[in-house]
């Protein structure tokens, strides 16, 4: 009877763990939907209202002339499919405004080819070199340049619902997003609005801004490492910490602004380009992220949050990738792909035999191709938004100092949080496997100790046998 109850209890525990995991996945998906709604609204507000069709009843799907006159226009604004997606997601966004239920859980950028990149050593020379380099660049202080940057409301000085995780180096610092609202900081930046100059910034200018932030950030991180052992300089330490936070928020605001303006291609080039040499790489080195996952000092709760959220984003991305692959494998309509105008289509030298040369057949073919193109465009936009939410989720699981120090590991390439998530998931799996092996070894030792006779009992049995003889 006892064995039966034990078996049932174990089964209930397994089912509870599955329910908790499913609940956490739904909670993350809800946060993703809310962030995507906020992003789509921000994108819509940045467009010229005269270029956006707000009323679907006014849209005639058979009218392809506008698209043919300006085929590149659709790439710079929201498509009708995007607006339809926004309308579908609005109910979920309104529900997200209510307090989120708390979690039920109980608890390849190339680097040097030789060794993984390590953070710079905490020396005064490094700090002086960083300061001199910033002055020599002729650029104003990144903290001063961020004067128009709105501070995150999730900051430790104003956040009342943060998780309260301490940074690994001893300075108290909250994660950018609390566990019950994992994409809060992203929604806040989207609601604050994009930086106007992000709509026209070039890759070299973006690299120069990032390099300036890294130089000043290195200086203050070095000062923090030196000041943490000196209790007589709390004011200087708090000042350096505030500058590091402001630099990080400035970088995240630039990234969010580029996302709002639909410049995902620039972000992709930015993350693959060496900000010192301007050389763009084709492959991404995972070694800096492997070192960062082990040396950033992520707590058990932080690792757990990343390990729970990363598979959710992989699942969301895989659904989009599968549909993209299916659409790309479908051949374009033969009639619609021959020409962009009726006159061109009608006077082509090589028309397929038996094709009905009528305006209606050409128009239907063009409509099918236009719908296919719009669907591809919407899926690509959705893929970019999911990727942005994934990066924001990973950043939200970290403290300001941890996120800033990650940039030291990946420098001179900007950090891509998706890669850090991959490494943290692998690290959590390895730690879980090691813990399971240790538990199995402990159980085996207990069983062996119970099966072996006690030394006193064995000696008494031997003495009794000798007395009988």
Automatic annotation (TrEMBL):
- UniProt feature coiled coil, ranges: 2-29
Disordered: annotated span:
97-122, 149-180
Composition-biased stretches (Low complexity):
97-108, 149-178
Superkingdom of source: Eukaryota
Q: Which UniProt keywords apply?
A: Coiled coil
Q: Give the protein name, as stated in the record.
A: Uncharacterized protein
Q: Which organism is it from?
A: Tetradesmus obliquus
